[in-house]
């Protein structure tokens, strides 16, 4: 039976995709078959008549098993805006049942691990009544938190962890990602986060150059997830 993890972040653009693909690569290095799932994506381009998202493309590329695009990303919206607004503009509704069906199909593959990347942060609306976190709750997925190291991230990280746990879910691990190379007192902030976060620390990604960004898995230790 495949093990699925949900990757969330302290915000949008904090490195969820970079970390998700790094986790996929790290899992493959220890012999796991891994696939990725991006249930809801906004910010997509039309390719051969199908809307495609960069995050989902990257996860499709890293998968151990070749998958059709729609299996990786069932909900794709063109504008790079909050997905529930993009859905409304497209006269579509995001159904959590359909997202569950997609996950169930991935569980039927030979994958050992399924890495599910959220959109935005933890409390991401699907419509005016539902959140993506409700779906994660329903699926009982352990959560991996990506903390984008920038001023304000301590508060965002602690509140996100509080919310995940109040939702009855576990924080399987967290990653510190240096999204801002110019952050002042990075080390002191990192020490504070490590002291205050009581969940397995999976590693720290430095600000990566164009050459290094292809190998982000070397900064992670996935032992706590195995
Ligand atoms: N450690 C890093 N070093 C260099 N560039 C980084 C690093 N982390 C993230 N980036 C870059 O920052 C951008 C945002 O990262 P990423 O797309 O992984 O964020 P995200 O949280 O998945 O965003 P979204 O909410 O849109 O899904 C990307 O261009 C990525 O390559
Ligand atoms: C387009 C962007 N990169 C993300 N995929 C969507 C982020 C939505 C955030 C919604 C919110 O919480 O305000
Ligand atoms: Mg992403």
TrEMBL record:
Q: What does the record give as the function of this protein? A: Catalyzes a mechanistically unusual reaction, the ATP-dependent insertion of CO2 between the N7 and N8 nitrogen atoms of 7,8-diaminopelargonic acid (DAPA, also called 7,8-diammoniononanoate) to form a ureido ring.
Instruction: Please give the organism.
Output: Zobellella aerophila
Subcellular location per the Swiss-Prot or TrEMBL entry: Cytoplasm
Q: Which positions bind Mg(2+)?
A: 17, 55, 117
Record keywords, A-Z: ATP-binding, Biotin biosynthesis, Cytoplasm, Ligase, Magnesium, Metal-binding, Nucleotide-binding
EC primary class: ligase
Q: In which pathway does it act?
A: Cofactor biosynthesis; biotin biosynthesis; biotin from 7,8-diaminononanoate: step 1/2
> What is the protein's name according to its record?
ATP-dependent dethiobiotin synthetase BioD
